[in-house]
Specification:
Length: about 230
Protein backbone atom coordinates (compact mmCIF):
# COMPACT_ATOMS: atom_id res chain seq x y z
CA UNK A 1 0.00 0.00 0.00
CA UNK A 2 1.24 3.47 -0.87
CA UNK A 3 0.42 6.25 1.58
CA UNK A 4 0.74 9.88 0.52
CA UNK A 5 1.43 12.81 2.88
CA UNK A 6 -2.21 13.88 2.64
CA UNK A 7 -3.38 10.48 3.92
CA UNK A 8 -4.66 9.32 0.53
CA UNK A 9 -3.71 5.74 -0.35
CA UNK A 10 -3.20 3.42 -3.30
CA UNK A 11 -3.83 -0.23 -2.48
CA UNK A 12 -4.84 -1.62 0.89
CA UNK A 13 -3.65 -3.61 3.88
CA UNK A 14 -7.12 -4.77 4.78
CA UNK A 15 -9.18 -1.73 5.61
CA UNK A 16 -10.92 -0.79 8.81
CA UNK A 17 -9.35 0.58 11.98
CA UNK A 18 -6.14 -1.38 11.37
CA UNK A 19 -5.57 0.32 8.03
CA UNK A 20 -6.39 3.73 9.51
CA UNK A 21 -3.70 3.20 12.16
CA UNK A 22 -1.17 2.17 9.51
CA UNK A 23 -1.98 5.28 7.47
CA UNK A 24 -1.53 7.54 10.50
CA UNK A 25 1.79 5.88 11.38
CA UNK A 26 2.91 6.15 7.75
CA UNK A 27 2.15 9.87 7.70
CA UNK A 28 4.27 10.34 10.83
CA UNK A 29 7.04 8.26 9.22
CA UNK A 30 6.93 10.53 6.17
CA UNK A 31 7.26 13.60 8.39
CA UNK A 32 10.09 12.15 10.48
CA UNK A 33 11.76 10.36 7.53
CA UNK A 34 12.34 7.40 9.85
CA UNK A 35 11.30 3.82 8.84
CA UNK A 36 9.09 1.89 11.23
CA UNK A 37 8.54 -1.84 11.81
CA UNK A 38 5.42 -2.21 13.92
CA UNK A 39 3.19 -5.07 15.04
CA UNK A 40 -0.54 -4.45 15.41
CA UNK A 41 -2.47 -6.97 17.61
CA UNK A 42 -5.69 -8.12 15.99
CA UNK A 43 -7.03 -9.77 19.12
CA UNK A 44 -8.57 -8.66 22.38
CA UNK A 45 -6.77 -8.49 25.67
CA UNK A 46 -3.51 -6.94 24.47
CA UNK A 47 -2.28 -3.70 26.12
CA UNK A 48 -2.23 -1.92 22.73
CA UNK A 49 -5.34 -3.60 21.31
CA UNK A 50 -7.56 -1.29 19.27
CA UNK A 51 -10.68 -3.47 19.38
CA UNK A 52 -10.00 -6.00 16.62
CA UNK A 53 -11.35 -9.48 17.38
CA UNK A 54 -10.26 -11.48 14.31
CA UNK A 55 -7.24 -12.93 16.12
CA UNK A 56 -3.52 -12.98 15.44
CA UNK A 57 -1.41 -9.97 14.63
CA UNK A 58 -0.02 -8.09 11.64
CA UNK A 59 3.51 -6.74 11.33
CA UNK A 60 3.97 -3.88 8.88
CA UNK A 61 7.15 -2.32 7.54
CA UNK A 62 6.61 1.39 6.93
CA UNK A 63 9.37 2.74 4.73
CA UNK A 64 9.22 6.42 3.73
CA UNK A 65 10.36 7.27 0.24
CA UNK A 66 13.65 9.13 0.07
CA UNK A 67 12.20 12.63 -0.16
CA UNK A 68 13.83 15.80 -1.37
CA UNK A 69 13.86 18.92 0.76
CA UNK A 70 10.76 19.73 2.80
CA UNK A 71 9.09 23.11 3.26
CA UNK A 72 6.71 24.00 6.08
CA UNK A 73 4.56 27.08 5.55
CA UNK A 74 3.03 29.01 8.41
CA UNK A 75 -0.02 30.59 6.79
CA UNK A 76 -2.43 29.65 4.04
CA UNK A 77 -3.11 32.90 2.18
CA UNK A 78 -2.46 33.74 -1.48
CA UNK A 79 1.34 33.84 -1.20
CA UNK A 80 1.48 30.68 0.92
CA UNK A 81 -0.71 28.80 -1.55
CA UNK A 82 1.43 29.93 -4.48
CA UNK A 83 4.60 28.83 -2.68
CA UNK A 84 3.04 25.51 -1.68
CA UNK A 85 1.86 24.75 -5.22
CA UNK A 86 5.21 25.59 -6.83
CA UNK A 87 7.14 23.67 -4.15
CA UNK A 88 4.96 20.61 -4.78
CA UNK A 89 5.63 20.91 -8.52
CA UNK A 90 9.35 20.95 -7.69
CA UNK A 91 8.95 17.61 -5.93
CA UNK A 92 9.39 18.95 -2.42
CA UNK A 93 7.52 17.67 0.62
CA UNK A 94 5.08 20.46 1.54
CA UNK A 95 3.12 21.13 4.74
CA UNK A 96 0.85 24.14 5.30
CA UNK A 97 -0.10 25.18 8.85
CA UNK A 98 -3.22 27.37 9.01
CA UNK A 99 -6.44 27.21 11.02
CA UNK A 100 -8.48 28.00 7.91
CA UNK A 101 -8.32 24.55 6.38
CA UNK A 102 -11.32 25.25 4.16
CA UNK A 103 -9.27 27.79 2.19
CA UNK A 104 -6.71 25.18 1.18
CA UNK A 105 -8.90 22.75 -0.74
CA UNK A 106 -7.35 23.66 -4.09
CA UNK A 107 -3.80 22.75 -3.11
CA UNK A 108 -2.21 19.66 -4.73
CA UNK A 109 -3.18 16.41 -2.96
CA UNK A 110 0.44 15.79 -1.99
CA UNK A 111 0.38 18.85 0.31
CA UNK A 112 -0.17 18.09 4.01
CA UNK A 113 -2.55 20.50 5.74
CA UNK A 114 -2.36 21.10 9.50
CA UNK A 115 -5.30 23.12 10.82
CA UNK A 116 -5.72 21.91 14.40
CA UNK A 117 -2.41 23.06 15.93
CA UNK A 118 -1.29 26.63 16.58
CA UNK A 119 1.90 27.57 14.68
CA UNK A 120 4.14 28.02 17.78
CA UNK A 121 3.09 24.64 19.17
CA UNK A 122 3.62 22.98 15.79
CA UNK A 123 7.09 24.50 15.44
CA UNK A 124 8.19 23.49 18.93
CA UNK A 125 6.83 19.95 18.57
CA UNK A 126 8.94 18.96 15.55
CA UNK A 127 12.42 17.49 15.39
CA UNK A 128 13.71 19.79 12.66
CA UNK A 129 16.37 18.78 10.14
CA UNK A 130 18.93 20.60 8.04
CA UNK A 131 17.13 19.80 4.76
CA UNK A 132 13.89 21.43 5.94
CA UNK A 133 12.68 24.98 5.46
CA UNK A 134 10.29 26.96 7.65
CA UNK A 135 8.58 29.80 5.77
CA UNK A 136 6.45 32.22 7.79
CA UNK A 137 3.85 33.88 5.57
CA UNK A 138 0.71 34.21 7.70
CA UNK A 139 -2.13 36.71 7.46
CA UNK A 140 -1.18 38.72 10.58
CA UNK A 141 2.10 40.09 11.87
CA UNK A 142 1.20 38.87 15.37
CA UNK A 143 1.03 35.29 14.09
CA UNK A 144 4.31 35.80 12.25
CA UNK A 145 5.98 37.18 15.37
CA UNK A 146 4.79 34.33 17.61
CA UNK A 147 5.84 31.75 15.01
CA UNK A 148 9.24 33.37 14.61
CA UNK A 149 9.74 33.49 18.38
CA UNK A 150 9.15 29.73 18.49
CA UNK A 151 11.39 29.14 15.47
CA UNK A 152 14.34 30.94 17.03
CA UNK A 153 14.57 28.10 19.55
CA UNK A 154 14.97 25.38 16.85
CA UNK A 155 18.43 26.01 15.37
CA UNK A 156 18.44 22.75 13.39
CA UNK A 157 16.07 24.03 10.69
CA UNK A 158 18.00 24.53 7.44
CA UNK A 159 16.19 27.65 6.23
CA UNK A 160 14.09 30.13 8.17
CA UNK A 161 12.34 32.97 6.34
CA UNK A 162 9.59 35.48 7.09
CA UNK A 163 7.62 37.59 4.63
CA UNK A 164 7.05 41.30 5.13
CA UNK A 165 8.19 44.79 4.28
CA UNK A 166 11.46 46.04 5.76
CA UNK A 167 9.44 48.13 8.25
CA UNK A 168 7.37 45.16 9.40
CA UNK A 169 10.45 42.95 9.68
CA UNK A 170 12.25 45.55 11.78
CA UNK A 171 9.24 45.95 14.08
CA UNK A 172 9.02 42.18 14.61
CA UNK A 173 12.77 41.92 15.22
CA UNK A 174 12.61 44.79 17.72
CA UNK A 175 9.88 42.99 19.67
CA UNK A 176 12.00 39.83 19.82
CA UNK A 177 15.44 41.28 20.51
CA UNK A 178 15.17 40.74 24.28
CA UNK A 179 13.66 37.26 24.12
CA UNK A 180 15.37 33.86 24.42
CA UNK A 181 16.81 32.95 21.03
CA UNK A 182 17.27 36.57 19.94
CA UNK A 183 20.87 35.75 19.01
CA UNK A 184 19.47 33.65 16.16
CA UNK A 185 17.69 36.57 14.47
CA UNK A 186 20.66 37.02 12.16
CA UNK A 187 19.94 33.68 10.49
CA UNK A 188 16.40 34.70 9.51
CA UNK A 189 15.87 35.52 5.83
CA UNK A 190 13.61 38.55 6.05
CA UNK A 191 12.34 40.19 3.98
CA UNK A 192 12.09 36.83 2.31
CA UNK A 193 13.19 35.81 -1.18
CA UNK A 194 15.62 36.83 -3.89
CA UNK A 195 15.35 40.34 -5.32
CA UNK A 196 13.69 39.76 -8.69
CA UNK A 197 11.15 42.58 -8.42
CA UNK A 198 8.45 40.09 -7.43
CA UNK A 199 4.94 41.44 -6.86
CA UNK A 200 2.24 38.87 -7.66
CA UNK A 201 1.96 35.72 -5.47
CA UNK A 202 3.33 33.48 -8.24
CA UNK A 203 6.38 35.73 -8.63
CA UNK A 204 6.90 35.80 -4.88
CA UNK A 205 6.77 32.00 -4.89
CA UNK A 206 9.57 31.86 -7.47
CA UNK A 207 11.63 34.31 -5.42
CA UNK A 208 11.14 32.45 -2.14
CA UNK A 209 11.73 28.93 -3.45
CA UNK A 210 14.84 30.02 -5.35
CA UNK A 211 16.33 31.52 -2.19
CA UNK A 212 15.25 28.59 -0.05
CA UNK A 213 16.79 25.97 -2.34
CA UNK A 214 20.00 27.97 -2.70
CA UNK A 215 20.36 28.04 1.08
CA UNK A 216 19.42 24.39 1.65
CA UNK A 217 21.71 23.20 -1.15
CA UNK A 218 24.50 25.58 -0.16
CA UNK A 219 24.83 27.27 -3.54
CA UNK A 220 25.39 30.94 -4.27
CA UNK A 221 22.11 31.53 -6.08
CA UNK A 222 24.02 33.67 -8.56
CA UNK A 223 23.96 33.76 -12.36
CA UNK A 224 25.08 30.68 -14.29
CA UNK A 225 26.36 32.63 -17.30
CA UNK A 226 29.75 33.18 -15.66
CA UNK A 227 30.31 29.40 -15.62
CA UNK A 228 30.39 28.93 -19.38
CA UNK A 229 33.45 27.11 -20.70
Amino acid sequence: MLVYPSGQISGTVGGGKFEALVVADAQESIRSKIPLLKTYPLREGEPDSFGAICGGEATVLIEPQALREAVFLIGGGHCAQAIASLAAQCGLSVTVVDDRGELLSDLPPSVTIVSDVAPPAFIRSRNWKQDEALVIVSRQHDIDREALAAALSVPAVGYLGMIGSRRKVQMVFDRLKDTPGAANLDRVYAPIGLDIGADAPAEIAVSVIAEMLAVLRKTSGGHLRGHRS
